[in-house]
Write a structure and sequence with these properties.
Blueprint: H1 2-16, H2 18-37, H3 46-58, H4 61-64, H5 69-77, H6 82-117, H7 124-143, H8 151-154, H9 156-167, H10 170-214
Helix pairs in contact: 1-6, 2-3, 2-6, 5-6, 6-7, 6-10, 7-10
């Protein structure tokens, strides 16, 4: 038993240690989306605009977890026991990817709600597409060029030159385009499911309140 636990801990540290850090990065835009888009006040202060910039910079970290499936593949190929693979690798990696993607979906739903509240409902779809495009670029720069969100502040010149170079090169542009299509399709599906769940929860709470008020 001790051997199995030791192997499991070693496996986690070697192949799954990224989970906590990447989920932390994914939750930054999620938390910011609640503060930026779902608050009652419509006042946009300097701090609001700074928060929006941070939101945009860190948002690609949420869908970026989709690409972390490569860590799952590497872990499975590492030759660990079937128990470690099925009880640790697959559940942990799958859950992390799902949570990261849901954080992205909810963040964009909050963004769309804000636009609707501001009377800009007709721009929601275009804004979603623009967000997917920016995140596709961010995912590519993170996965293949190994840039981080804060590199836009610490080394903007290198990031800008590299991004422009990739956007004018056929192969990187193709990868970014495929990523954009995947993000757009997955988001549309997940958005419907998430909105459906939110609606059911809202109806349940409304029924519960009505029942309590009638007593």
């Amino acid at each position: 038993m001790e051997t199995i636990l030791a192997n499991a801990l070693e496996a986690f540290n070697k192949h799954s240690g990224w989970i906590i850090w990447n989920l932390f990065l994914a939750f930054i835009p999620l938390v910011l989306s609640f503060w930026l888009f779902l608050r009652r006040s419509n006042r946009r202060s300097l701090f609001w605009w700074i928060g929006l910039v941070v939101f945009i910079l860190f948002l690609p970290n949420a869908p970026y977890l989709l690409t972390d499936v490569i860590h799952l593949i590497e872990a499975i190929r590492a030759g660990y026991s079937i128990w470690v693979t099925t009880l640790i690798f697959i559940p942990l990696h799958s859950l992390a990817i799902l949570i990261g993607w849901e954080a992205y979906t909810i963040s964009l739903i909050a963004q769309s709600y804000y636009l609707e509240k501001q009377g800009a409902k007709k721009y929601i779809f275009a804004c979603e597409l623009l967000t997917h495009a920016l995140c596709a670029i961010g995912i590519f720069m993170g996965r293949f060029r190994r840039f981080n969100s804060w590199d836009l502040v610490t080394k903007p010149d290198v990031l800008l030159v590299t991004t422009i170079s990739d956007l004018t090169d056929k192969q990187p542009l193709l990868v970014i385009a495929i990523t954009f299509i995947i993000l757009t399709g997955l988001y549309w599906l997940t958005k419907q499911v998430t909105l459906g769940i939110i609606l059911r929860i809202k109806l349940f709470l409304d029924d519960l309140n009505s029942e309590n008020n009638s007593r």
